[in-house]
TrEMBL record:
GO MF annotations in UniProt: peptidyl-prolyl cis-trans isomerase activity
Keywords from the UniProt entry: Coiled coil, Isomerase, Rotamase, Signal
Coiled-coil segments on the chain, per record: 70-114
E.C. code: 5.2.1.8
Group of enzyme by EC: isomerase
Reactions performed catalytically: [protein]-peptidylproline (omega=180) = [protein]-peptidylproline (omega=0)
Keyword Lipid metabolism: no
UniProt-listed PANTHER family: FOLDASE PROTEIN PRSA (PTHR47245:SF1), PEPTIDYLPROLYL ISOMERASE (PTHR47245)
Signal peptide residues on this chain, from the entry's feature table: 1-26
Family annotation (PROSITE patterns): PPIC_PPIASE_1, PPIC_PPIASE_2
Annotated protein name in UniProt: peptidylprolyl isomerase
Domain PpiC: 150-240
Length: 287
């Protein structure tokens, strides 16, 4: 029930439901040298491969809806929008999230349905979950290293193939030409050129050794001399630096509480759903 699983789980379920729904006619879905492959054959294959798990997920979703109706529990459009906003922040913006949704094979509506289902479960099962300060403290101590802030550099670069090109760009920068415009014109790094060469923030061990040595040795707003790596010659502009800092419980308390809540919800939901299935009148023809 982890929120980070919305797209992965939702995409798999949506695809399976789409493929299974309505495939009982004899209509051909493909033709091979004049021989038809009909929908019924495809349906049988899909049921054999994914039918049991997909139907079980659909049964669970239906039980959640029914229990929510009994308890008069609802999820508002505002709550779904707020959840979507969190996802946009995690993925680096609305466009990045849209790209992730599309690459997963889902639609925005399908993702919102997964979010709605999660929020219903959270409202039905969540009130019984209590996360104590002792649990938060223990989790922090066990995972302290992961909450420490490593030193980071925020930088842009212009990548060219030869030292001569790099020196030419360096001279233009000395004469006051704009770094972002030169990146768009000269950089062979097609992933960043149009964005002015922006690389974002990175820690040690993420970039080529020569690149990192130069970047971490620079001050904010400083522009490097040409730096050679296996990729070519880089001109680096450091746009910001974050100093290393030890983990602080107060700064991470809410994040830890959410992690522990999600873990507890996952466990509680499994037990809750097992009880609901035991009490429900379910006729599953695939079992």
């Amino acid at each position: 029930m982890k929120k980070a699983m919305y797209i992965a789980i939702g995409a798999a379920l949506a695809a399976a439901i789409f493929l299974m729904t309505g495939f009982i006619q004899k209509d051909a879905v493909a033709t091979v040298n004049g021989t038809d492959i009909d929908k019924e054959s495809l349906y049988e294959k899909l049921v054999a491969a994914n039918g049991v798990a997909t139907l079980d997920a659909m049964i669970s979703d239906e039980l959640v809806k029914q229990e929510a109706q009994k308890a008069n529990v609802k999820v508002t459009k505002e709550e779904i929008d707020a959840e979507m906003k969190k996802y946009e922040e995690q993925y680096g913006g609305a466009e990045a999230l849209q790209s992730a949704i599309e690459s997963s094979g889902m639609t925005v509506d399908q993702l919102e349905n997964e979010m709605k289902n999660y929020l219903l479960i959270e409202k039905l099962v969540g009130p019984d979950i209590e996360i104590t300060d002792e649990q938060i403290d223990a989790y922090f101590e066990e995972n302290k290293a992961s909450f420490a802030q490593a030193e980071q550099v925020e930088a842009s670069h212009i990548l060219v193939a030869t030292k001569e090109e790099a020196e030419e760009v360096s001279k233009k920068l000395e004469y006051g030409e704009d770094f972002a415009e030169l990146a768009a014109e000269y950089s062979t790094d097609t992933a960043t050129a149009e964005a002015g060469g922006e690389l974002g923030s990175f820690g040690k061990g993420e970039m080529a050794a020569e690149f990192e040595e130069a970047a971490f040795g620079m001050k904010a707003d400083e522009i490097s001399e040409p730096v050679e790596t296996d990729y070519g010659f880089h001109i680096i502009k450091v746009t910001g630096k974050t100093e290393a800092a030890e983990a602080d419980l107060a700064d991470n308390k809410e994040q830890i509480k959410e992690i522990l809540f999600d873990e507890a919800l996952n466990t509680q939901y499994a037990s809750w759903m097992a009880e609901k299935k035991e009490a429900a009148d379910i006729k599953n023809k695939l079992e």
